[in-house]
Every structure is written in structure tokens, then in C-alpha cells.
Prior knowledge:
The chain is α/β, with parallel strands linked by helices.
Amino acid sequence: MRHLITLADLTAAEIERIFAIAEDLKSKYRTGLREPILPGRVMAMLFEKQSLRTRVSFQAGMTHLGGSAMFLSDDVGFGKRETMADFGRVLSRMVDVIVVRARRHQTVVELAEHCECSVINGLTDLAHPCQAMADLFTLRELVDKLAGHTLAWVGDANNVAFSLALGCGKLGMRMTMATPRGYRFSEETMALIRRAAPDLELDVTDDPAEAVRDALAVYTDVWASMGQEAERETRKRDFADYQVNAALMRHAQQGAVFMHCLPARRGEEVTDDVIDGPQSIVVDQAANRMHAQKGILVWLLGPTT
Ligand code: CP
Ligand code: NVA
């Protein structure tokens, strides 16, 4: 039984295996085939924060696979009604997999410690592994081999950036980051990255133009993540020079794509012309969440593991 809490939990070969399953299921889905690989399997979903993509892609994906998903609302009292140990021990005897989106990363770690079924991190303050899986899967559809290419991150060194750093490191992609001082990975987070992805080539700068120069993909995310709403005005000032706009995209190589995990704050971290422009692959990324999620579910629960 395996968990997916951060991409440190997966080897490069396992990531490739998940991509191969996702690719196969995606091509079948496109021809109208929804193979019931996980009949009778039950997924519980616990979300402490809002979600469109993660929630719907997991639920739809599990349904395609012949299993079922139950979205557990506040009524179950997660974190409030009983200890995490009692909650996890009981819930995991009734379901096959739990997807959890939590305010604190430690909540997911603690829940997994007490569960007898797989736990998948659906976003925490530290990590968003399923997002990075879908993003790298999306890039892999564009180029034969990810290794040797550069992903440029422009903005806050947040949960999505952390997961992409691990994923890039494992798959041999270089990462450049344009992030203002004070918003870069902490020493503690850098240590986690170094341990999980020792081969990652990571260059950090405060010049977005320099960061995007050789990039296959230019990626940004909101300047204030969920839970950081009180810092929004300060962050808007501090990140003002880090907007991904047409002028910045002109510094990237021809053919570079624009990526964003969504939801976006248009006019802040990205302008409408870029996110709606010909280089943008944000909707493909979002749609691929479902295919990547299916790959993860089948890898964790299916007959092929
Ligand atoms: N990108 C992403 O995780 O979106 P949601 O917050 O809508 O799930
Ligand atoms: N960094 C964002 C990602 C949302 C999918 C957040 O945590 O709010």
C-alpha cells in the first residue's frame, strides 16, 4: 500500500509508469471507451479548501474507472470531532483511497500515518503533487523527452513550484525561477528538494526575462495562495515586476508555452492576452488533471501494480 503525499514518494520510473497508464486511458477515453478497471473501489474526498479541478477530475476519473467517489463535507467533522488517529483508522477500513486537501501539510502526513488505505495529497500549503504530475504529463505530450528541457517558474515559490521542482528533478528537467527575495524556497524546503531530487538543476534569479530565456514552458501561479488572502495587497506590490505578460513572453524562445495551474487572477500574475493567447496550454493542463489522476488511481489500486 502506497501513499502520494509529495513527489518524493515516487521514483522517476514510477512517474513514467503513471504517465503510461494515463496516456493509455486518455487515448481510450477519446474513442469513447471507459474501462472499468477499478470496479467497486471507493474513494473518499476530504477538502478543507475550495477546489474545482482537483475535486471534479478525481470524482469523474474514479467514475470512469468503474469505482465511486464520495465527497465528505464538513458533516464528518474532519479534524474537529475525533482524533486524527480514530478518524483515519475508521475511514480507511471502509474506503480504498482517500484524497485530502488540507490547510496544513502535516494534516495529510498525520492522516496517512493512521490509514490502512492509500492517501493522496490533493494540495497542501507545501505540495500539490497531482498538479505537477498533470503538468509534466502535459509537457510530455509536446516533446518526446522532457530531460534537458527547462521549465521557468515566475512568481511565488509555493506548493505548485515545490512539486514541479521535485518532478523536474526526477525527470531531468532544469528549472529556473524568477522569484523576489523573501518569497523563495525556505532553507527547509530546499533541503527537502535536495533530498528528494538531488539531480535538480535549479537557478533562482530576480530577473523574469533571464528566467524565461531558454524555457520550454513559462509557468506562473497566483501571488497569494489560498490561506494567504490577508497578504494579498502586500504581495501585489512585491510581485508587481513578476507579471507574465506579452513583453515577458517575447524573451522566451519561439514555441515556448504558457502554463498556469488555475484558478488565475487575471491582470495580476498573468495578463488576458497571454493566458488566452496562442502559447497558452492552461486548459489542456486542467483537462489532463483527470487523465493523470486516473493514472495515479490505477497505479495505486489497480491490477497492474
Ligand atoms: N489547480 C487546482 O488544483 O485547481 P482547484 O483548486 O480548482 O482544484
Ligand atoms: N498555489 C495555489 C494553487 C491552487 C491550485 C493555492 O495553493 O491556492
